[in-house]
Amino acid sequence: MLDATAPNLQRQAAWFLASHAMAQGDVVEAHRMVCALGNSERLNLLPLFPHDVAHDAELTRIALARSDDELVDVIVARTERRADANPNVRSIQAAAAHVRGLVKQSTSELAAAVELFGQVGRPLAQISALDDLGTQRLRDGSPDAAIDAFDQSLILALDIGAGWDATRARSRLRELGVRRRVVGLDTPRTGWTALTPAGKRWWSNS
To answer: CB 3.0 to 4.6 Å from 137: which of 6, 69, 146, 156, for a disulfide?
Structure first.
């Protein structure tokens, strides 16, 4: 896909590989994939078509981890312009708050992102913001508040069946001396028992 002639396909491939590397904890490889189409092109990797605003925070994490200040500035400017142009779209406001929270190391901005993503039913984006909120609370010297954020992340991940995210949250809690039994990761993947609580409510009411 990186060798494709369609620019959007190339960018999709670069972003997929960067996201995969970041999920594996390889920040160096993630940034290398962000730059895979050229150093200047890294500034135009996002937005993709179609674009998920939650990607902005993920790219911000990569840029911050590699001290890529130019890329950080581009992401911030882009998300703020989008937020200014769409003041009533809560998912866009959430994404902007998430990016601001990462860049400014602000618990209030990250908490706002968590709240807004929850209001619009974006659980994966909410989990991402909760993880960053917990990490920032640890930096601020508030381990109990961090545990609360990671607990919320774990509960939400289990509710939607996001096993990888649940395992990550549980690991972070364990590092803080908190052990949580993770149930539901081996539940059936088909049939009524495979549905999340939200899915069961939808079918029951339809």
So the answer is: 146
